[in-house]
Fold Phosphatase 1H-like.
Amino acid sequence: MSSAFNGVRKWLNMTSLVSPSGQKSEGSKAYPKVGSELFPYTRPSFLGLSKEAGKASADHEIRPILVAQRELPLNAGYSETINAGKSYLVNEDQAFAEMFCLHVINIDKELKEDTITKLPYWCFGIFDGHAGAGSSLATVNQLQDIIHEKLHEIQDVIVCDEKNYGKLPVLHGAVAPTISFEAVVIGALEQSFLEMDNRINRDRQVHKITGGCTAVVSLFLKNKLFVANAGDSRAIICKDGKPIPMSKDHTPETDRCRLQVLAAMKPALLGKEFTRLEFQQKPRRKHVGKKLFCRDRNMTGWALKLITEEDVFRTQMISGSGKAARLLETIGTTRGFGDFDLKASYTGISVKPFLTAEPEVTIYDLSQESIDENDILIMATDGLWERVSNEKVC
């Protein structure tokens, strides 16, 4: 599927208001069926689909393009269509668009009066499912609430002026320069992603939660745009007709160093089937005793290595290049949620230890830029980015 939020055109001045008190099947093994589904299958609620329309939306021949049937926050737009046949029966991708509000009670001891600071924020998410819709459904139904819980925990810090951080009980005695509004929001997003993955792992012990999903989430808070990404979905800002990348695709190639470091620390994860080394060309028997270029963890360049029999018979942990790059010959993305039961093709080696839900967070300062209604944020799955470049999209 190619799904996208676009047209976030109304870039609002998100200041606090003070008032009186008042969440690709690529060589995977079958996932075990455990219990009932955690969440019933639906398309995003803002599409307003009937049951009949929902079934029609999964037609791989007609492939209808669906758009939101109600107004979305910040004048956002949305469209989706199912892929050409890779997904079976249902569209495995999901999305949400929500507005929330933080409420902080301010106690004025001198005036003996309480006020409430209301701080609205907006959250958008795109989740590209693969090998089943279970993980994307779990994510779209829970992640936004987890994010809200994490932001609620730190709302005193978010609302407070940084020069007054020392007065906050949670920061009493802390070294103020080490804390910033941006840093605590990034931490909340990072915690939210990791907790979401942990919930899927917990709930799959009781419920049937199939597959995995990538995640890209955009958070508009206090004149800042935070984009948290885990996987190969993508977010860009189109400003003055030019793209500003707000995320980086996580593939076996871009995550190579992290994967090789993990494999070096825990070689048993590769069994005797794979090698963490990346060779410039596949070692063959004729190369034994000769040198070929390869690279290991923490290397950006190439170095010569004497080829052994082991190098010949072990498969490279990362194979292919570009969109054909695969981890353990199985999956083309290295971050996201779920995939706890995913096994490498033909070997049965678990892929999940090499995957992570850890997002990378990018910040865009809306207050420092001249934004107008022609400048938009676009979020989409790789169904869009595989076919058009950032430049063409803008």
Notes: Residues 9-32 have pLDDT under 50 and may be disordered.
